[in-house]
Amino acid sequence: MAFSAVKGQTQIKIRLAAEAQRRGSGAYMLTGPEGTGKRMLAEEFAKALMCPDAGSDGACGVCPNCKYFDNFTTPDVTRVYEPSDTKNVKVDFIKDRVVAESYLKPQFARTKTFIIDFDYLGEESQNALLKSLEEPRKDVVFILTSSNTDAVLDTVMSRVTEIKLDTYSEDELEEIVRLNFPDLEEEKVKSAVYNSGRIPGKAIELAREDSGVSIRHEINKIMTAMPGSSYIDVLEDFCEVLTGFKDDSKIIASSILLFLDDAARLINYPGCRRINNELDREAIENFVAVNKHITTLKLGRCTDAVKAFTRALEVNANFDAAASAMLLRIHEELKK
Ligand SMILES: [Zn+2]
Predict the structure, then answer these.
(1) How far is the CA of 60 from the centre of ligand 1 (A)?
(2) Beta carbons of 120 and 85 less than 8 angstroms apart
(3) Where do runs of H (alpha helix) occur along 200-336?
């Protein structure tokens, strides 16, 4: 990966690549709203600083330094991102792992780099960094990011070179969404971009929700077809569909549960006003109407099968095995 793998931000990428080639020391602060790609740019910039063959597109991607960087095994890059246990990074961590380290020479690369997300730094930690930011060693670079510069001390801002991220064009946003969701329909790509406020992270989130809707639709098709299907249909065709959504196993499970819930409601209250899958209402109503043998008791046992599937995946069971076991149990309950 190099700068060209990051979409948009053309001027900033040119600038960062040039700074990396120049190998000057210093402190940079990438700023812009959450979801604008600051961290990706910070990572690419750090990688370019590590790479002895960095060019106008940043790191070469193939040299040992690039490999170490990609494997998170270089001692010359320190990342300070969101802590797992507390709201903010502890000041002792900043003192020991950043301030103290920043006085040491890099071990393999020509530059030692610290990437620090200031969104997780309290005032005390920011103060602890002041001296290091002001006079870094000639082979040390600080790459800071912030989505809210109001929370950054003025004394910090005055010591860093601020690089404000540009807004993204609609074309760039569409490209980003397509890259992440290659199968998403054109219309949904456009709507995700339109509602994103020009923030790529938001566009991706919206596209993910939309792709969730399409998983639900596919699941509903399988479920309505289940009673009339054969054992082979289940093991071959239905399993294949689920495998295609493997990375979204939670959406698979919740979609089946929502379907079962809708079917139970329509059995108990025919024509009931609000169901989970309004978009597929006709198909589900038909499913209930033509399959009089399906009772809420049977649907309840199908729910148990979905819960077993979720539990199996939690303990890292093989996806295909867990999915086929679930589908076969559901088939057993719903078949004619
Ligand atoms: Zn390289």
Answers:
(1) 4
(2) no
(3) 200-225, 231-233, 239-244, 249-268, 281-290, 296-314, 319-334
- Ligand 1 center–CA 50 separation, angstroms: 7
Q: How far is the CA of 77 from the centre of ligand 1 (A)?
A: 14
Quote the ligand 1 centre to 299 CA distance (angstroms).
56
- Tell me the Cα Rg of the chain: 26
Q: What are the two backbone dihedrals, phi and then psi, of residue 31, each rounded to the nearest 5 degrees?
A: -125, 150
Cα of 59 from ligand 1 centre, angstroms: 5
Q: How far is the CA of 203 from the centre of ligand 1 (A)?
A: 31
In CATH terms, the fold of domain 3-166 is Rossmann fold (3.40.50)
Q: How far apart are CA 270 and CA 266, in angstroms?
A: 5
Tell how far the Cα of 67 is from the centroid of ligand 1, in angstroms: 8
To the nearest 10°, report the CA torsion of 296, 298, 302, 308: 110
Angle between helices 200-225 and 249-268 (to 10 degrees): 50
> What tens digit of pLDDT does each residue of 11-35 get?
999 999 999 998 777 999 999 998 8
Q: How many A from CA of 111 to the centre of ligand 1?
A: 13
Cα separation, 75 vs 106, whole angstroms: 8
List, edge to edge, every strand of the sheet that includes 26-31.
Answer: 77-80, 112-117, 140-146, 26-31, 161-164
Q: What is the pLDDT of residues 124-161, one digit of tens each?
A: 999 999 999 998 899 999 999 999 999 999 999 999 99
Distance 46 CA to ligand 1 centre (A): 11
Distance, in Å, from the CA atom of 217 to the CA atom of 272, rounded to the nearest integer, reads 20
Alpha-carbon distance of 219 to 225, in angstroms, equals 10
Q: Would you call 278 exposed, middle or buried from its count of C-beta atoms within 10 A (0-12, 13-18, 19+)?
A: exposed
Overall pTM surpassing 0.85 (yes/no): no
179 Cβ contact list (under 8 Å, min separation 6): 7
CA of 55 to the centre of ligand 1 (A): 9
Rounded to whole angstroms, the Cα distance separating 149 from 146 reads 6
- Residue among 301, 294, 302, 299 nearest 335 (CA): 294
